[in-house]
Structures are given as structure tokens and as C-alpha cells.
Amino acid sequence: MGYLLFIILITLIISLLLSKVKFGWAKIFRAVILVFSISLFTYWFIKKSSIGVVQNAVALQLINKLPQPLDFYVLNINNNKNDALEVMHLGKIRPEYYRVEYLKMTNSDEYWIIGYLGKKNAVYFSQHSVPNKNIDQMIEVQNYINQSVKLSGIAKKEIEAYNQENTKLGVLITLNLLLLFLNLSLFVRKK
Question: Which phi-psi region, left, alpha or beta, contains residue 118 (left: φ > 0; alpha: ψ -120 to 50)?
Fold first, then answer.
């Protein structure tokens, strides 16, 4: 997604520069870029806004029983060597609240849960196996525990890489939407 967003950013910059050109091909190029960009972002927003129910998935219900809200991540351990760890952000869960996530466990039989208090302070880590993929999982976090220091270190590195990638995507999406708005306003303005 990052490469596609970068290509769209470059084409939107070119389209913005072509707003001063009076030739017919420049207006056609700008119109095509605008239609493509708007349709791509519309598809992306609808896809991200839809409910994440996955076919043949295990439902994980995570309940926070601790007195403080924690920021939880789930790492799905895949048996494929290409995607060894798949990171999902569950979000900040308040005390006595829960969150449900659907884990695609076709290539996996294990997942890790890590909880953060603040931005860098990992206070909870647990490792869970899924022997039966037909039974949904319910995890209650009742204490601050780190089951494995070595595995929690690996999880922290993966989560930092995941957060950095999301930050880059956020900057690219913001710039693209800004340039898309500028191009659209320049395209439909009347002289």
C-alpha cells in the first residue's frame, strides 16, 4: 500500500503542477488522476470501515480486569516463513471492558498478547496456543505478567516496526488527501 500511495502522491504533485497548463491533454490527465485517486480512497475507507469478521476465524475476546486501561496488541504466529508475525492493534481497553478480534488461524496455532501502559512500558505478555480452531478464545487479563522476556522483546520489536509503518502510511495518506483536495478545488473552480 505504501508504494501505491507514493505513486499517487507523485502523480497528484504532477497534476497540481499541470493546473497552470492550458492544453487539453493536461486536463484529461488531471481528470483521470482525480477519478482514480478518489475511487481508490473511497474503496480503502469503505474496506477499513467494514466489520472485520473473517471466514473460518477464531474469535478472541480480550477482557481487561486490571484497574488501569492498557493498550493491547495481538501477534499471530504464522507457520509460513515469509510472514512469521502478523501484528494487530486491539486498542486501549478500559477496566472491566473487552474487545473482540477475529484471528485467521489457517497457517497458525499460536498467538501472543502484549499490553502497554503508556507508550513504551510493556506490562503484560502472554503466549497462547490454539489446539482446537473451532472454539473461540476468551482471555481475562487479571495481573501484570510477562511469561517470557525473550519473546516479549521480539514482540516489542515487531510492534515498533508496525507502529513506524503505520506512521509512514498516515503521513502519506494525509499528504495525498491534502493534494487531492487542492487538485479537486483547482479542477472545478470557475475563472
Answer: left
Q: Is there a contact between 74 and 57 (Cβ–Cβ < 8 Å)?
A: no
The closest of 64, 8, 57, 49 to 32, measured between CA atoms, is 8
Pairing of strands 137-141, 57-64: parallel
> Using CA atoms, how far apart are residues 61 and 140, in angstroms rounded to an integer?
8
Reading the block at residue 42, the C-alpha cell is: 473511497
CA-nearest of 79, 98, 75, 95 to 87 is 75
What 3-state DSSP class applies to 4?
A: helix
Q: What radius of gyration do the chain's Cα atoms show?
A: 22
| Residue 38 parent element (H or E) | helix 24-49
pLDDT at 130: 87
Helix, strand or coil, per DSSP, at residue 188: helix
One digit per residue, the tens of pLDDT, for the chain of length 191 reads 788 999 999 999 999 998 888 788 888 999 999 999 999 999 999 988 877 667 778 888 999 999 999 999 999 888 776 667 889 999 999 999 999 888 888 888 889 999 998 878 889 999 998 888 888 889 999 999 888 889 888 899 999 999 999 999 999 999 999 999 999 998 888 66
d(CA 52, CA 59): 11
Question: Which residues, at least 6 apart from 89, have a Cβ–Cβ distance to it below 8 Å?
Answer: 71, 72, 73, 162
